[in-house]
Amino acid sequence: MSNISQLSLTKIVKGIKKKEFTSEEVTKVFIANSKKSKKLNTYITECFDEALISAKNFDKKKDYNGLLSGIPIAIKDLFCTKDIKTTAGSKILNNFIPTYESTVTKNLWSQGAFLLGKLNCDEFAMGSSNETSFFGNVINPYGEKIVPGGSSGGSASALAAELTPATIGTDTGGSIRQPASFTGTVGLKPTYGRCSRWGIVAFASSLDQAGPMTKNVEDCALLLQAMSSYDPKDSTSIDIKVENYSSKLTEKVKGLKIGIPKEYRVDDMPVEIDSLWKKGIDYLKDAGAVIKNISLPHTMYALPTYYIVAPAEASSNLARYDGVKYGHRAKGNNLIEMYENTRSEGFGNEVKRRILIGTYVLSSGYYDAYYLKAQKVRQLIKNDFDKSFTEVDAILTPSTPSSAFKIGDKTDDPISMYLNDIFTVPVNLSGLPAISVPAGYDKNNLPLGLQLIGKPFDEQTILNLSLAIEKRVNFKKNFKNWWC
Amino acid sequence: MGEKKFDYFISGDKAKWEVVIGLEVHAQVLSKSKLFSSSSTKFGADPNTQVSLVDSGFPGMLPVINQFCIEQSIKTGLGLKAKINLYSVFDRKNYFYADLPQGYQISQYKNPIVGEGEVILDLPYGSKKVGIERLHLEQDAGKSIHDMDPENTFVDLNRSGVALMEIVSKPDLRSPEEVNFYIKKLRSIMRYLGTCDGNMQEGSLRADVNVSVRKIGDKKFGTRCEIKNVNSIKFMQAAIEYEANRQVDLLETGKNIDQETRLFDTKKNITRSMRSKENAHDYRYFPDPDLLPLKIDKSLISKLEKELPELPDEKKERFMKEHKLSSYEANILVSDKEISDFYEEVIKSCDKKLATNWITVELFAVLNKKNLNISQSPVSAKNLSSLIKMISSGKISGKIAKYVFEKMQVDNKDPNQIVEKESLIQQSDPKELEKIIVSVLLKNKDKVAQYKSGKEKLFGYFVGEVMKLSKGKANPQLVNQILKNNLK
């Protein structure tokens, strides 16, 4: 019984279907685990009572037709959930209860899953270590002083610590893949437009994309299938049929051409990352894939481009948090003062920093030099990928330039924090799908991930390649539940 | 109509000044739902009852373009003989205000949906072409209400997200009168198209007015001031009048005009400064990442082009040709689509010349007096047509017709029934008329004698008596004829 939580999502779904255990039993296990794990600070809102009721109702109805029948699932607190507080990790939304359900979560519920709770994240998904949340740092199960990555840090930690059978996050510049890499889990950012953005608190609209975070690749395929859809309520959603990723999942990748971009071999990259990358190449060679060296010449401009585009959009997206309609409102003697006090109190430093950057780069006189130029460079970065994909089927890189770092290590140096996203950001700028799959450990026993980047809407190929790597790595978690 | 000459200049102490005006008209798109949400746009609803999560800027809410509003804008563009841009972009105009829930207005900045076009004005001194710079789509903001509570401002978001077309003219207008003609023509075109009801009382049509002055003969434009959000033609005219004179006064005393935004005070009839150029907002326009660029298919444009109704200019030309109307008459009849429809309905079965007179003189007088528009006319086109038919066939006299017309206004009565019931048919039988005339002349032998001795004015007296006896039904032409014969 107690080992239910160690099972994969796929196995739990099957177990419920085969009546090896009930949804209630499953739910109780994850609730118990969650209750014992307060130290990790993964939850912002617990919905344990409601989850138990849902589980019991499920067990009575026995409707096994969904992809996720009877599965409790905790999710990043960036998805609006009807009648459940949704904070985006911010004080300014500390009291916000939506009257509506995001399309992605609605898709999960219609596949038979139900909500276990809302998970901590960087404020408005702005951060790479989960240190910007109003609700405090999230702890990585790999160490009491180790960050889980960000912004979907609460999701990654909760998943790795077995507090939820799977989870979903959002990825604007690496917010799914980097924490997945830091916690030894699988995280996939789908093609821009694959999952609806409707009902997800917006950070940078042209980059944001929701995606699955799971224990293994098989689960990832299943959850991706469950959450994806075309949504007419999101004008940037694309009307392409959702694949049956699970049934098509195969480790047979013989003959697939894999690009290795030379520009991802950055200065000061730890030897361990380099050797991890080499191991990844070997795994894929072993699986019969063909390795090709490629060039993505504009890679070095991706990070600065990202840090213009994303804050620009954020500065505008976050203007609605003004204390007038909902959320935190401070007092003031007039409208302007009320705005100033509300936003000064309501936003944390990182959010303020990005609003300032975004406001600056959009200002008259600077727009052409920053925003417009960034858009042009963004196109060049995308062109690099398009060109490469005429020669290769997928691209292999490390997920991150380092393993998880210590809490507080980078908080005083935003640039070194931003550098964490160096391998993930180009993918968002190009709207491509990419996955991080656990591939080994560094000398401190901290997990490291490899990233596979695919062609638009070809999530299947990177899932298959990840499966091939997963089979060869034989990755096992190597931490004890020290926090219980 | 005698040809007038354009004469709107401001005579200062030192020079004669020409006034240069350009308008940015905000026209509400006639559409049941808003530009980016399905909320109703109905006027006059209780505050905050027509507001969706999108209109009120809730987290995670996304705009979806209302295709109908796009088609309405294209139609309007076609009506302005303008270029329709196959590629246009929605931008965010960022600023903070309590009635702007998203913190930005979605508008079109660099790439509007409609490009250059024109509007033809029929002015008393000839026709004039006014250039259109562009037409773009944008969403309206909500309304802040400051006077309901001493301490709080209330916000009504019913208008938030309503689709507006901003129609920007070139600086081609030169007088308040031309502004009057321009607005009316623009409104007429949009009403013909059914793309804007042009209702200024309900705020469906408002304008920002750009005014500058220059010495007659100068090629360069002067520095302009923009008068924001003026909501009636009268106010626009008064604002221009004041503003132009203010600028002339400044320039003639050697001062400069500051480029600034001004407000029109409708109580004092003056404009005052709202914000200077230095304090102008930096709206930080950038393409809205929630919306893809708008791509319009050529086939949609040609489809809408085919469906386009006959517009005022073409209708005027046709009326002059087909119905032999003067330019003046045609202008009056085509100014409003409903009037032209009414006219065409009336003339289906009666004399066109008489119909023109009866509509533009008698009917308009009634409508004006009762403050009605043509669609509320107390007399239907069909009944007016019947009345005119009776006049031209000689069944009733013009005088009786006016009496019948009065009666018709009550419950839109059928004139035939009125004439029948009150036996108002014109007496045109010469024998019967002769009987009446002879009896009148016999009764007035002394006056007949006076007439015959040269007092010819008495002729009218005899006619009057005959009419009296016939209860006004005698055919006047016949009476004249027979009377003359009998007085020989």
Structure overview:
Chain A is of the alpha/beta class. Chain A is built from 16 helices and eleven strands. Chain A has helices at residues 9-17, 23-35, 48-61, 103-110, 153-160, 177-183, 217-227, 245-248, 271-286, 302-317, 335-346, 349-362, 368-388, 414-418, 425-430, 459-473, and strands spanning 43-46, 72-76, 114-119, 167-170, 186-189, 210-214, 257-261, 290-294, 394-398, 434-441, 447-454. In chain A, β7, α9 and β8 (290-294) form a beta-alpha-beta unit. The model of chain A has no long low-confidence stretch (mean pLDDT 96). Chain B is an alpha+beta fold and 488 residues long. Chain B folds into three domains: 18-304, no CATH class; 310-421, no CATH class; 430-486, Arc Repressor Mutant, subunit A. Chain B has helices spanning 67-79, 176-193, 233-252, 298-307, 312-322, 327-334, 337-346, 352-370, 381-392, 398-408, 415-421, 430-443, 445-452, 458-469, 476-486, and strands spanning 10-11, 16-28, 87-88, 91-94, 104-107, 117-123, 126-139, 143-145, 154-156, 163-169, 205-215, 225-230, 260-265, 270-276, 286-287, 294-295. In chain B, strands 1, 2, 6, 7, 10, 11, 12, 13 and 14 form a nine-stranded mixed β-sheet that branches. A three-stranded antiparallel β-sheet of chain B has the order 5-4-15, with no helix packed on it. In chain B, a hairpin with a 4-residue loop joins β13 (260-265) and β14 (270-276). Chain B is elongated and about 95 Å long. The interface between A and B is large, with 42 and 30 residues.
